[in-house]
Amino acid sequence: MMKIMIIEDDLVIASSLQEELLKWQYSAFYVTDFNDVMNTFTQEAPQLVLIDIKLPYFNGYYWCTEIRKISQVPIIFVSSQSERMDIVMAIQMGADDFISKPFDLTVALAKIQALLRRTYDFTGNDIYLSHRQVHLKTSELKVQYQDQEVELTKNEIKILEVLFLQKGAFVSREAIMMKLWENDSFIDDNTLAVNINRLRKKLAEINVTSFIVTKKGFGYGLQKDEHDETK
Questions:
Q1: Which residue has the higher pLDDT, 220 or 72?
Q2: What is the pLDDT of residues 138-189, one digit of tens each?
Q3: Concatenated DSSP letters for 159-204?
Q4: FRET partner for 27 with CA separation of 20 to 30 A, picked from 79, 166, 178, 230?
């Protein structure tokens, strides 16, 4: 289930967006602490962000810039400030799309789904995610690199799925554990470390090494793309 974060201080709009997204089987939540948006973002690790421009404390441009420092997650601005320069500014700050208020929920949903399709490669009901020529096949419980494959456990698949969907960012241990708890598969911090180590060993079997990176205080992430490493 794709998770969508709504950063909107108008509760009526935030709740209506959440309700519509839930109807379409998305996991949607809205921010309540506008002074600590980044902590919510890193803890929840959403696959898409909807954000207003006018917000308490800091505006949407600021939070978009902060998110872009650690993640390439798709971002859509939803705002009544929809003059040409507002839209240009949003795109320059790192947004992927812009929805002007007032908006039709059907149109908003279509834009959200289109951006999710462009960002995450869907095939039927399965999700095929790729990074550095490593391909995750969730329904088959396998990961593939070049002409080699290795089978994974359900927990290992879920861990990799979270990291693939947030490639370019570090995902907190808590966010990964929450992903596993969603399916009644309890796991604590020590067990997570064991799962990560086993996963690294399985990836090494198909010559994928140093793929999962640990950053103290931030969590786990994927090795950068080759073109990023030259920056």
A1: 220
A2: 778 889 998 899 999 888 888 998 888 777 788 888 888 877 775 545 667 7
A3: HHHHHHHTTTS-B-HHHHHHHHHTTT----HHHHHHHHHHHHHHHH
A4: 79
- Exposure string for 195-227, b = 16+ CB within 10 A, e = fewer: bbeebeebbeebebeebbeeeeeebbbbbeeee
Q: What does the pLDDT look like over 111-150, one tens digit per residue?
A: 898 888 887 754 444 455 778 888 888 778 889 998 899 9
Q: What is the pTM of this model?
A: 0.57
3-state secondary structure 99-152: EECCCCHHHHHHHHHHHHHHHCCEECCEEEEEECCEEEECCCCEEEECCEEEEC
Q: Within a 10 A sphere around the Cβ of 149, how many other Cβ atoms?
A: 15
**What span, in angstroms and rounded, lies between the C-alpha atoms of 140 and 160?**
14
Q: How many CA atoms lie within 13 A of 82 on its CB side?
A: 12
List the one residue out of 19, 22, 15, 10 whose CA is nearest residue 53: 10
Radius of gyration of the chain (CA): 18
